Each structure stands twice: as structure tokens, then as C-alpha cells.
Amino acid sequence: MKILLLGIGNVLYADEGVGVHFVNYMAENYRFSHPEHQIDTLDGGTLAQGLTPILSQYDHLILVDTVNATDVDAGEVYYFNFDNAPPEIDWQGSAHEVEMLQTLIMMEMVGDRPETWVLGVVPTVLEPMYLGLTEKISQAIPLMEKTLLKHMDSLNVDYQRVANTPIEALIPDSFKR
What does each C-alpha distance from 46 to 12, 67, 154 come to in angstroms? Predict the structure, then answer.
């Protein structure tokens, strides 16, 4: 089985970049392995439809992104199978989610979409030209990390912590407030 951990987001819009930052954080701090499965990480930025040829090569996709949910606080973490999204998720919370949703639906229509899980967090700030995460989203990172590692356990994927680099250290200093 081929497994992809994919971070989606626009790092120029504060919390909107959490998917990209989180995947880079996990790649920096962990090594994933399985004797039979291939596990890859990818910063997908805002490519969405441009990722279709890559995504179709995988059997299992873990998509890390912002999600918009009604009547919940910023920093709330969601983890769900794409085919069973919670009713409060409306996919309208960012500059790219509708396009990513459309990409996954189109892939399903032609039978190319891998089994897809979404690890998402409700954003606080979607502010142009701010490379960094707000405090509420930074505080959600440990729960996101624990959730992802639990999912990897369910796939019998081994992991080893190889560093303790905080996520903030992976965001360029020149763009922090």
C-alpha cells in the first residue's frame, strides 16, 4: 500500500497554511516506516487539481488542512473519513478548500481517489501576507500530532521521533510578527 501524508494550504494567509506547516513539522520530527508499505509526505500548497496525477498513485491519503465548521471555536481539531464528513463541515473556510473538495470528488467520479482521511483544524486568521500561525492553531498542533500518530498505529506503520523541532521554527523568521 502507498500512503501519502499531504499538507494543503496557502502559507501567505496565516492559519490557512497550517496543513503545509504541520506536514513539514511531522517530516522534520518523525520517520515513518512499514516493511510492506510506502509512506510519503508532501507539501501540496494550493495546487489541488494539479495534484491529481500524484494523488492517484496512492492507496491511502491523509489530507491535513483547515476546515470550516459551523458553531465551533477556532483551534477545534477534526479527524474524519472523507466519505463520512461531520455535518458541521462546510468546506468554505479557506482560499482553496472548495477546489480541493472538487478535486477529490472528480477523482472519485473516475475511480482514482485513494481512501481519504482528513485531519483539519478550524482557522483563526486568514490574513494576507502573514506567514505564521495564531496561538489557538499552534495550541492545536499537539492534538493533531497525537491524532495522526494514532492513525499511523491503526495502519501498523512504525514511527520514530528523530527531532524535537517546534513547528514555529519551521516557519521563516523573516515573516513572523
Answer: 11, 14, 28
Distance CA 171, CA 43 (A): 13
**Could you tell me the pLDDT band of residue 177, with boundaries at 50, 70 and 90?**
very low
As a whole number of angstroms, the distance between CA 63 and CA 28 comes to: 18
The pTM (predicted TM-score) of the whole model is: 0.86
What HEC string does the chain produce? CEEEEEEECCCCEHHHHHHHHHHHHHHHHEEEECCCCEEEEEEEECCHHHHHHHHCCCCEEEEEEECCECCCCCCCEEEEEHHHCCCCECCCCCCCHHHHHHHHHHHHHCCCCCEEEEEEECCCCCCCCECCCCHHHHHHHHHHHHHHHHHHHHCCCEEEECCCCCHHHHCCHHHCC
Cell for 68?
470550516
Q: What is the CA radius of gyration of the chain?
A: 15
